[in-house]
Amino acid sequence: MSLGPVMLDLEGTELTAEERELLRHPAVGGVILFARNYQDPGQVAALTSAIHALREPRLLIAVDQEGGRVQRFRAGFTRLPPAGRFGALHRHQPQRARQAAERVGWLMAAELRAVGVDFSFAPVLDLDRGVSRVIGDRAFAHGVNAVSDLAAAWMAGVHAAGMAAVGKHFPGHGGIAADSHLELPVDGRSLADLTVEDLVPFARLIDHGLEAIMPAHVVYPRIDTQPAGFSRFWLGEVLRGRLGFQGVVFSDDLNMAAAGAGGDYRERAKAGLAAGCDMLLVCNNRPAAVETVAALHDHDDPAALLRLLRMHGRGGRDLDGLRLDPSYQLALHEVGAMEELASLDLDLPDPTRPAAG
Fold this sequence. Notes:
The protein has 13 helices and 10 strands.
Protein backbone atom coordinates (compact mmCIF):
# COMPACT_ATOMS: atom_id res chain seq x y z
CA MET A 1 0.00 0.00 0.00
CA SER A 2 1.29 3.49 -0.83
CA LEU A 3 0.62 6.83 0.82
CA GLY A 4 -2.60 8.39 -0.43
CA PRO A 5 -3.19 12.11 -1.11
CA VAL A 6 -5.39 12.97 1.90
CA MET A 7 -4.31 14.10 5.37
CA LEU A 8 -7.11 14.17 7.94
CA ASP A 9 -7.62 14.72 11.65
CA LEU A 10 -8.79 12.69 14.65
CA GLU A 11 -11.55 13.23 17.19
CA GLY A 12 -9.73 12.58 20.46
CA THR A 13 -6.71 11.22 22.27
CA GLU A 14 -7.09 7.61 21.11
CA LEU A 15 -7.99 6.01 17.80
CA THR A 16 -11.60 4.90 17.45
CA ALA A 17 -12.55 1.77 15.50
CA GLU A 18 -14.01 4.00 12.78
CA GLU A 19 -10.78 5.98 12.54
CA ARG A 20 -8.66 2.84 12.28
CA GLU A 21 -10.74 1.73 9.32
CA LEU A 22 -10.63 5.18 7.69
CA LEU A 23 -6.86 5.49 8.11
CA ARG A 24 -6.38 2.19 6.27
CA HIS A 25 -8.13 3.57 3.18
CA PRO A 26 -5.65 3.78 0.28
CA ALA A 27 -6.51 7.45 -0.35
CA VAL A 28 -5.29 8.42 3.14
CA GLY A 29 -1.64 9.34 3.54
CA GLY A 30 -1.36 11.26 6.79
CA VAL A 31 -2.82 12.57 10.03
CA ILE A 32 -2.65 16.08 11.45
CA LEU A 33 -2.91 16.36 15.24
CA PHE A 34 -4.52 19.21 17.16
CA ALA A 35 -4.64 20.28 20.80
CA ARG A 36 -7.69 18.06 21.36
CA ASN A 37 -5.54 15.04 20.51
CA TYR A 38 -3.00 15.87 23.20
CA GLN A 39 -2.95 15.25 26.96
CA ASP A 40 0.70 14.66 27.75
CA PRO A 41 3.84 13.32 26.03
CA GLY A 42 3.21 9.69 26.99
CA GLN A 43 -0.33 9.73 25.63
CA VAL A 44 0.61 11.33 22.30
CA ALA A 45 3.57 8.95 21.88
CA ALA A 46 1.14 6.04 22.28
CA LEU A 47 -1.21 7.65 19.75
CA THR A 48 1.48 8.18 17.12
CA SER A 49 2.71 4.61 17.66
CA ALA A 50 -0.81 3.29 17.06
CA ILE A 51 -1.13 5.36 13.88
CA HIS A 52 2.24 4.25 12.54
CA ALA A 53 1.41 0.60 13.23
CA LEU A 54 -1.68 0.66 11.00
CA ARG A 55 0.08 0.25 7.67
CA GLU A 56 3.31 0.27 5.69
CA PRO A 57 4.68 2.66 4.60
CA ARG A 58 3.76 4.48 7.80
CA LEU A 59 1.21 7.26 7.61
CA LEU A 60 2.75 10.71 7.96
CA ILE A 61 1.96 12.49 11.24
CA ALA A 62 2.05 16.28 11.39
CA VAL A 63 1.17 19.09 13.78
CA ASP A 64 1.27 22.89 13.86
CA GLN A 65 4.01 23.55 16.40
CA GLU A 66 5.32 26.96 15.29
CA GLY A 67 5.56 28.53 18.74
CA GLY A 68 3.78 31.55 20.15
CA ARG A 69 0.06 31.54 19.33
CA VAL A 70 0.33 28.37 17.25
CA GLN A 71 1.57 25.51 19.41
CA ARG A 72 -0.72 22.50 19.75
CA PHE A 73 1.31 20.54 22.33
CA ARG A 74 2.00 22.60 25.45
CA ALA A 75 1.94 20.84 28.83
CA GLY A 76 5.08 18.73 29.01
CA PHE A 77 6.63 20.53 26.03
CA THR A 78 8.75 23.66 25.99
CA ARG A 79 6.71 26.80 25.36
CA LEU A 80 8.32 28.16 22.22
CA PRO A 81 8.64 31.87 21.42
CA PRO A 82 6.81 33.31 18.40
CA ALA A 83 8.93 33.73 15.28
CA GLY A 84 8.62 37.51 15.47
CA ARG A 85 10.73 37.53 18.61
CA PHE A 86 13.73 36.31 16.61
CA GLY A 87 13.12 39.12 14.16
CA ALA A 88 13.15 41.69 16.95
CA LEU A 89 16.51 40.39 18.11
CA HIS A 90 17.80 40.23 14.53
CA ARG A 91 17.46 44.01 14.13
CA HIS A 92 20.00 44.51 16.90
CA GLN A 93 22.07 41.30 16.96
CA PRO A 94 21.66 39.29 13.72
CA GLN A 95 24.25 36.64 14.53
CA ARG A 96 22.78 36.09 17.99
CA ALA A 97 19.30 35.83 16.45
CA ARG A 98 20.42 33.22 13.93
CA GLN A 99 21.93 31.13 16.71
CA ALA A 100 18.74 31.35 18.74
CA ALA A 101 16.56 30.45 15.75
CA GLU A 102 18.67 27.41 14.93
CA ARG A 103 18.69 26.11 18.51
CA VAL A 104 14.97 26.66 19.04
CA GLY A 105 14.18 25.06 15.66
CA TRP A 106 16.19 22.03 16.79
CA LEU A 107 14.33 21.98 20.12
CA MET A 108 10.91 22.09 18.48
CA ALA A 109 11.80 19.25 16.13
CA ALA A 110 13.61 17.11 18.71
CA GLU A 111 10.67 17.22 21.13
CA LEU A 112 8.23 16.24 18.40
CA ARG A 113 10.45 13.44 17.13
CA ALA A 114 10.65 12.13 20.71
CA VAL A 115 6.90 11.42 20.61
CA GLY A 116 6.73 10.09 17.06
CA VAL A 117 5.57 13.14 15.10
CA ASP A 118 7.15 13.30 11.64
CA PHE A 119 7.04 17.05 11.04
CA SER A 120 5.53 20.41 11.93
CA PHE A 121 3.89 22.72 9.41
CA ALA A 122 6.56 25.37 9.79
CA PRO A 123 8.32 27.73 9.25
CA VAL A 124 6.10 30.64 8.28
CA LEU A 125 7.86 32.42 5.41
CA ASP A 126 5.34 35.26 5.08
CA LEU A 127 6.49 38.84 5.57
CA ASP A 128 4.98 40.65 8.54
CA ARG A 129 3.67 43.78 6.85
CA GLY A 130 1.66 44.83 9.88
CA VAL A 131 -1.68 44.27 8.15
CA SER A 132 -2.47 40.55 8.39
CA ARG A 133 -4.57 39.53 11.38
CA VAL A 134 -3.74 35.85 10.98
CA ILE A 135 0.03 36.20 10.38
CA GLY A 136 1.45 38.92 12.67
CA ASP A 137 4.24 37.62 14.89
CA ARG A 138 3.99 34.17 13.34
CA ALA A 139 6.29 35.72 10.72
CA PHE A 140 9.95 36.23 11.56
CA ALA A 141 10.07 39.85 10.38
CA HIS A 142 9.01 42.36 7.76
CA GLY A 143 12.26 42.46 5.83
CA VAL A 144 12.99 39.89 3.12
CA ASN A 145 16.60 39.37 4.21
CA ALA A 146 15.74 38.94 7.88
CA VAL A 147 12.98 36.40 7.15
CA SER A 148 15.24 34.43 4.81
CA ASP A 149 18.18 34.56 7.22
CA LEU A 150 16.24 33.45 10.29
CA ALA A 151 14.15 30.83 8.51
CA ALA A 152 17.28 29.23 7.05
CA ALA A 153 18.88 29.06 10.51
CA TRP A 154 15.67 27.67 12.03
CA MET A 155 15.47 25.05 9.28
CA ALA A 156 19.08 24.01 9.85
CA GLY A 157 18.17 23.20 13.44
CA VAL A 158 15.09 21.26 12.36
CA HIS A 159 17.18 19.20 9.93
CA ALA A 160 19.76 18.45 12.62
CA ALA A 161 16.96 16.93 14.73
CA GLY A 162 15.89 14.60 11.89
CA MET A 163 12.84 16.49 10.67
CA ALA A 164 11.75 17.97 7.34
CA ALA A 165 10.50 21.56 7.09
CA VAL A 166 7.33 22.95 5.49
CA GLY A 167 7.42 26.58 4.33
CA LYS A 168 4.12 28.47 4.28
CA HIS A 169 2.05 30.26 2.94
CA PHE A 170 3.25 30.40 -0.69
CA PRO A 171 3.52 32.88 -2.41
CA GLY A 172 2.89 35.10 0.65
CA HIS A 173 -0.03 35.78 3.00
CA GLY A 174 1.34 38.84 4.79
CA GLY A 175 0.01 41.53 2.45
CA ILE A 176 -3.73 41.30 3.19
CA ALA A 177 -5.79 41.78 6.32
CA ALA A 178 -8.39 39.06 5.66
CA ASP A 179 -8.11 35.68 7.42
CA SER A 180 -8.43 32.79 4.95
CA HIS A 181 -9.98 30.64 7.71
CA LEU A 182 -13.01 32.95 7.59
CA GLU A 183 -13.10 34.48 4.09
CA LEU A 184 -11.31 34.51 0.75
CA PRO A 185 -8.44 37.04 0.89
CA VAL A 186 -7.62 39.00 -2.25
CA ASP A 187 -4.15 40.47 -2.80
CA GLY A 188 -4.05 42.99 -5.64
CA ARG A 189 -0.28 43.21 -6.03
CA SER A 190 1.49 42.40 -9.28
CA LEU A 191 3.71 39.41 -9.98
CA ALA A 192 6.69 41.77 -10.20
CA ASP A 193 6.02 43.10 -6.68
CA LEU A 194 5.61 39.60 -5.23
CA THR A 195 8.71 38.34 -7.01
CA VAL A 196 11.06 40.94 -5.53
CA GLU A 197 9.58 40.67 -2.03
CA ASP A 198 7.29 37.86 -0.82
CA LEU A 199 8.68 35.11 -3.06
CA VAL A 200 12.27 35.68 -2.00
CA PRO A 201 12.22 33.71 1.31
CA PHE A 202 10.63 30.74 -0.49
CA ALA A 203 13.26 30.85 -3.23
CA ARG A 204 16.11 31.07 -0.74
CA LEU A 205 14.87 28.22 1.44
CA ILE A 206 14.33 26.05 -1.62
CA ASP A 207 18.01 26.62 -2.35
CA HIS A 208 18.75 25.51 1.24
CA GLY A 209 16.89 22.21 0.81
CA LEU A 210 13.30 22.99 1.91
CA GLU A 211 11.35 19.72 1.68
CA ALA A 212 7.76 20.95 1.49
CA ILE A 213 5.60 24.00 0.88
CA MET A 214 2.01 24.91 1.75
CA PRO A 215 0.31 27.42 -0.57
CA ALA A 216 -2.02 30.15 0.64
CA HIS A 217 -5.78 30.20 0.12
CA VAL A 218 -5.34 33.68 -1.35
CA VAL A 219 -6.32 35.03 -4.77
CA TYR A 220 -3.92 37.32 -6.61
CA PRO A 221 -6.32 38.57 -9.34
CA ARG A 222 -3.69 40.47 -11.34
CA ILE A 223 -1.93 37.12 -11.80
CA ASP A 224 -4.56 34.34 -11.71
CA THR A 225 -8.24 34.00 -10.87
CA GLN A 226 -7.71 30.90 -8.71
CA PRO A 227 -6.38 30.85 -5.13
CA ALA A 228 -2.72 29.82 -5.09
CA GLY A 229 -3.48 26.31 -3.82
CA PHE A 230 -5.76 25.66 -6.80
CA SER A 231 -3.60 27.48 -9.35
CA ARG A 232 -1.57 25.66 -12.00
CA PHE A 233 0.22 28.93 -12.67
CA TRP A 234 1.42 29.36 -9.08
CA LEU A 235 2.20 25.71 -8.34
CA GLY A 236 3.32 24.62 -11.79
CA GLU A 237 4.84 27.54 -13.62
CA VAL A 238 6.19 29.53 -10.66
CA LEU A 239 6.90 27.01 -7.88
CA ARG A 240 7.95 23.95 -9.88
CA GLY A 241 9.17 25.85 -12.94
CA ARG A 242 10.80 29.17 -12.07
CA LEU A 243 11.84 28.26 -8.52
CA GLY A 244 12.77 24.67 -9.34
CA PHE A 245 11.01 23.22 -6.29
CA GLN A 246 11.05 19.41 -6.23
CA GLY A 247 9.55 18.76 -2.79
CA VAL A 248 6.04 18.13 -1.46
CA VAL A 249 3.16 20.56 -1.91
CA PHE A 250 0.58 20.32 0.90
CA SER A 251 -2.72 22.11 0.41
CA ASP A 252 -3.92 24.31 3.23
CA ASP A 253 -7.07 22.98 4.91
CA LEU A 254 -9.81 22.40 2.32
CA ASN A 255 -12.36 23.05 5.08
CA MET A 256 -11.30 26.71 5.42
CA ALA A 257 -13.78 29.28 4.15
CA ALA A 258 -11.39 30.52 1.46
CA ALA A 259 -11.15 27.02 -0.02
CA GLY A 260 -14.82 27.31 -1.00
CA ALA A 261 -13.60 29.02 -4.16
CA GLY A 262 -12.64 25.52 -5.33
CA GLY A 263 -16.23 24.21 -5.25
CA ASP A 264 -17.59 21.33 -3.17
CA TYR A 265 -15.14 18.99 -1.43
CA ARG A 266 -14.79 16.61 -4.35
CA GLU A 267 -14.17 19.54 -6.68
CA ARG A 268 -11.70 21.15 -4.26
CA ALA A 269 -9.75 17.91 -4.00
CA LYS A 270 -9.63 17.34 -7.75
CA ALA A 271 -8.70 20.97 -8.38
CA GLY A 272 -5.94 20.94 -5.78
CA LEU A 273 -4.37 17.78 -7.18
CA ALA A 274 -4.71 18.99 -10.77
CA ALA A 275 -2.99 22.25 -9.83
CA GLY A 276 -0.01 20.41 -8.36
CA CYS A 277 -0.72 19.55 -4.71
CA ASP A 278 0.65 16.21 -3.50
CA MET A 279 -1.40 15.96 -0.31
CA LEU A 280 -4.68 17.61 0.68
CA LEU A 281 -5.63 18.56 4.23
CA VAL A 282 -9.26 18.12 5.28
CA CYS A 283 -9.68 19.06 8.94
CA ASN A 284 -12.49 19.46 11.49
CA ASN A 285 -15.15 18.09 9.16
CA ARG A 286 -15.33 14.29 9.18
CA PRO A 287 -18.11 14.01 6.54
CA ALA A 288 -16.00 16.16 4.19
CA ALA A 289 -12.94 14.01 4.87
CA VAL A 290 -14.88 10.82 4.14
CA GLU A 291 -16.30 12.37 0.96
CA THR A 292 -12.83 13.44 -0.19
CA VAL A 293 -11.29 10.04 0.55
CA ALA A 294 -14.05 8.28 -1.37
CA ALA A 295 -13.61 10.60 -4.35
CA LEU A 296 -9.90 9.79 -4.55
CA HIS A 297 -10.06 6.02 -4.02
CA ASP A 298 -8.30 5.32 -7.33
CA HIS A 299 -5.80 8.20 -7.26
CA ASP A 300 -2.29 7.13 -8.22
CA ASP A 301 0.73 9.45 -8.49
CA PRO A 302 4.09 7.64 -8.15
CA ALA A 303 6.09 10.89 -8.24
CA ALA A 304 4.06 12.37 -5.39
CA LEU A 305 4.54 9.16 -3.39
CA LEU A 306 8.32 9.42 -3.69
CA ARG A 307 8.21 13.02 -2.51
CA LEU A 308 5.94 12.16 0.43
CA LEU A 309 8.14 9.32 1.62
CA ARG A 310 10.92 11.85 2.24
CA MET A 311 8.73 13.54 4.88
CA HIS A 312 9.09 10.72 7.41
CA GLY A 313 11.05 11.74 10.49
CA ARG A 314 14.47 10.26 11.15
CA GLY A 315 15.94 9.16 14.46
CA GLY A 316 14.79 10.66 17.73
CA ARG A 317 15.00 9.73 21.41
CA ASP A 318 12.38 9.66 24.10
CA LEU A 319 11.96 12.86 26.10
CA ASP A 320 13.85 11.56 29.12
CA GLY A 321 16.89 10.78 26.99
CA LEU A 322 16.55 14.03 25.07
CA ARG A 323 16.65 16.12 28.22
CA LEU A 324 20.10 14.75 29.04
CA ASP A 325 21.49 16.04 25.74
CA PRO A 326 23.70 19.16 26.14
CA SER A 327 22.03 20.58 23.01
CA TYR A 328 18.70 20.43 24.84
CA GLN A 329 20.06 22.52 27.70
CA LEU A 330 21.50 25.06 25.25
CA ALA A 331 18.14 25.31 23.51
CA LEU A 332 16.28 25.80 26.79
CA HIS A 333 18.73 28.57 27.62
CA GLU A 334 17.86 30.26 24.32
CA VAL A 335 14.14 30.05 25.06
CA GLY A 336 14.72 31.60 28.48
CA ALA A 337 16.87 34.34 26.98
CA MET A 338 14.16 35.14 24.43
CA GLU A 339 11.61 35.45 27.21
CA GLU A 340 13.92 37.78 29.11
CA LEU A 341 14.46 39.94 26.03
CA ALA A 342 10.70 40.15 25.51
CA SER A 343 10.26 41.34 29.10
CA LEU A 344 12.80 44.09 28.39
CA ASP A 345 10.58 45.29 25.52
CA LEU A 346 13.16 44.60 22.86
CA ASP A 347 10.42 44.35 20.25
CA LEU A 348 10.47 48.01 19.30
CA PRO A 349 8.59 49.26 16.23
CA ASP A 350 10.39 48.24 13.04
CA PRO A 351 11.23 51.42 11.10
CA THR A 352 11.35 49.46 7.82
CA ARG A 353 7.76 48.22 8.17
CA PRO A 354 4.89 50.43 7.01
CA ALA A 355 2.24 51.21 9.59
CA ALA A 356 -1.03 49.33 9.31
CA GLY A 357 -3.69 51.35 7.56
